[in-house]
Amino acid sequence: MLVMILVGTLIFVDIIMAFSLGLAATPHKNVILENTLPSEALHTPEVKALTKRYRTRLWQIALIFSMLNFTMFFTHYESFLMTLFWVLLLIPMGAFYGTEIFYIRQMAQLKVNKGWQLPVTPVLVDTKLTLTKNKKMLHFGYLIPALLLSLGLAWFMLRSQNDGAAILSISLVIGWFIAFACWYGVKRLPVAAPTNVEKLNRQYNDLTKHDWSIVAVGTAYGILFALGLPFFASQLTGIWAQVTIWLMLILIVGFSFLLVWYLIRLRKKQDALLNQVTDYRYQGEDQYWRFGVYINPDDHRLMLPDRIGINLTMNLGRPAGKIFMGAIVLLVVGVLFATLIPVYMMDFNKEPFSAEFKNEELILKAPFAASSEIKLSDIQQVALVNELKKPIERTNGYGGENYSTGYYLVANKKATLYLDNRVRPFLKITTNKRDYYFTFKEEEKTKQLYQNLAGQLP
Fold first, then answer.
1. What are the Cα distances from residue 87, in Å, to 2, 66, 71, 265?
2. pLDDT in tens, 130-163
3. How would DSSP label each residue in 127-172?
4. Is pLDDT at 396 greater than 90 in this prediction?
5. b/e 194-228 (16+ beta carbons within 10 angstroms → b)
6. Taking CA 318 as the corner, what is the angle to CA 316 and CA 319, rounded to the nearest 5 degrees?
7. Pick from 164, 181, 173: which is nearest to 233 by CA?
8. Cα–Cα distance between 408 and 419 in angstroms, integer?
9. Angstrom distance (rounded) from CA 223 to CA 175
10. Number of C-alpha atoms within 13 angstroms, CB side, residue 71?
11. How many Cβ atoms from other residues are within 10 Å of residue 381's Cβ?
């Protein structure tokens, strides 16, 4: 099951990358592949041929790596499986990005060869529009209910003593602040004047601010549902828990497609406005998009619209932009090692799980999992079992094909797992509030622990 999820995720990412980067080959504000061309040059045979080759290369990369993703079905070690997942995630991203840069340079060279240079126009300052630039965007008040609901739900989660409550509650608050940062970034966007017609510039800016503020506010409520539903699912039993989980998945997928559709719709509306005029104000910004991202240390803006027309991007020439990009890289590296180190320790350590008696307690440990200190006096029963009773739900921990560690709900009761799923039987330790499931890599050692533990109980 895990392999199918990972392969499906990688194929989905490959398709999304090919589709989204392919949008750069469709003219928007006279920009195609990060190069601004005269209106009469946008649909010439040379430009069409170049953009067609670009899209073809993107989909070829997506197809090749989508096929390579199926090699994950032939890995036996879980550590190799997760390593292959990261390799097949990061290398295609590099290939897509490298292809984009290559064809940006090809378009720039074609522009020079054909003499399609545009005169640089001075920045047009519209004082009236600047003073009223945010009149169409959603007010901050739309974010307040989401904040109150997030804080209230976080407080309720913490009081519930659910194993995953702390992480979910912190994620709720952080999620709201991310949505607020998006909204604030939209508010701070300076006025754009892509044409010489004041009315069109006003309509263009009002449309952009309004739609992007809706996305920011919608994100705040979307995060609330995405994190709230798993918590409530953990409080339910039987079929209702499964229904809630499926509802959450449907909402997440639906919200993702709705977001993409809404932003593409915004781009079409922007193009419809710009197509009403034949002139386009070019301010010499092509040189700052040579790598597909905006790098201009002399521009005071930190956030600005991307050239595709469906997103906001960050000025990597600013110190804050560099810090943000560095933080993203560190986060990715941290997640990579956090997912790989535990499975390598479990795969290639002779005995990754440990159990020891100390001071009338049984202490259970596993790599990168919380230790459990179980008082012998709290143990009600010990048994050897071959299967976990369903339903089984992971609330906080690792759950793969071969290993399960961390906090779970097993048969609607809190449980902590330290399991090699390939080894039978499992040692089940029952206490009043929680069950514990444990196994060594060797069956006989698990049985010996059971006998030792049973001998020490009243």
1. 17, 13, 12, 34
2. 888 898 999 999 999 999 999 999 999 888 767 7
3. HHHHHTTTTTSPPGGGGHHHHHHHHHHHHHHHHHT-TTHHHHHHHH
4. no
5. bbebeebbbbbbbbbbbbbbbbbbbbbbbbbebbb
6. 105
7. 164
8. 12
9. 6
10. 13
11. 11
Integer Cα distance of 316 and 123 in angstroms: 21
DSSP per-residue letters across 179-241 = HHHHHHHHHHPPPP--SS-HHHHHHHHHHHHHHHHHHHHHHHHHHHHHHHHHHHHHH--HHHH
SS3 of residue 278 by DSSP = coil
Q: Is 44 exposed, middle or buried (0-12, 13-18, 19+ CB in 10 A)?
A: middle
Q: What is the pTM (predicted TM-score) of this model?
A: 0.84
Q: What angle do CA 75, 335, 72 make, to 5 degrees?
A: 15
Do residues 362 and 429 touch, judged by C-beta distance below 8 A?
Answer: yes
| Integer Cα distance of 237 and 254 in angstroms | 25
Q: For 213, how many CA atoms within 13 A lie in the half-sphere containing its CB?
A: 22
Tokens, residue 267: 């781009």
Of the ranges 56-60, 234-238, 415-419, which one carries the lowest mean pLDDT score? 234-238
Q: Within 13 Å and on the Cβ side, how many CA atoms surround 164? A: 24
d(CA 47, CA 31): 12
Longest dimension (CA), the chain: 92
Nearest CA to 19 out of 263, 246, 208 is that of: 263
How far is residue 136's CA from residue 102's CA, in Å, rounded to a whole number? 39
Nearest to 140 by CA among 69, 216, 54, 31: 216
- Is the model's pLDDT at 230 over the cut of 80? no
Residue 51 identity (one-letter amino acid)? T
Token duo for residue 432: 């009043």
- Strands (E) across 23-176 are located at 31-32, 35-36
| Cβ(348)–Cβ(79) below 8 Å | yes
Helix (H, G, I), strand (E, B) or coil at 382: strand
- Find, among 209, 324, 313, the residue nearest to 270 by Cα: 209
pLDDT, the chain, mean: 89
The number of beta carbons lying within 10 Å of the beta carbon of residue 154 is 22
Task: Name every residue whose Cβ is closer than 8 Å to that of residue 56 and which is 6 or more positions away in sequence.
Answer: none
Residue 110 CB neighbours (<10 A) = 19
